Amino acid sequence: MSRPASRAKVSVRAIAALAFAAVVVVALDQGVKALVVANLPYGTVVPVLGNVLQLFYVRNPGAAFSFAVNMTWVFSIVSTAVVVAIIVFARRIHSMWWALVLGMLLGGALGNLLDRLFREPGFGRGHVVDFISTPWMMPAIYNIADSFICISMVIFVLLVILGVNLDGSRALTAKQQRAADAAGDGTAVAVPDGTRASRPATASDDPRGPHDGRESLGHDAT
Known about the structure:
The chain has helices at 3-39, 72-89, 96-118, 144-162, 174-183, and strands at 45-47, 54-60, 128-133, 141-142, 188-190, 196-198. The longest helix has 37 residues, at 3-39. By secondary structure, it is α+β, with helices and mostly antiparallel strands.
């Protein structure tokens, strides 16, 4: 199989993984929100694990974790822009890790965007359903979509620190690049499996200069 065909196959797998992650997050988020709205009393704390985990159903007109209330239209537009950007950007992804990260981010953005579009008090101004409270960690109340957004951001930072590129390759560290330069036997490049590859030697690399490839037989032809 040719390299371009192989890369195209990886791209399809990555896009499928991204879409699957997004669908799972949206389904989980919207399904649990429906259960919360149908079964939990509004504005009442329901202890699950004492102060470690509580259920507290509220409606949030602001951003994630109940921040910046009364700016629903702004966050509806921002969420829509994030969703569109991820969908457009998806075709450049060949790494399964990046696909899962962006899939979780897409699912989280879509989960809250659906609330803002279709819940009361109206289209684009809907209040997001929040219900998870962890007083020991933060005073804010959040939901499953918010949780996946935060998880995706943490993994995003880790992938950047580890030098994992969108195509699945790994960027060489400064130490590896210095070692490659010191070796002097080829140009190190990043490849999808995270290892180094060197450029094969060519005739132009021969210190004797270009030649026609014929070996010397130890005597001059007459």
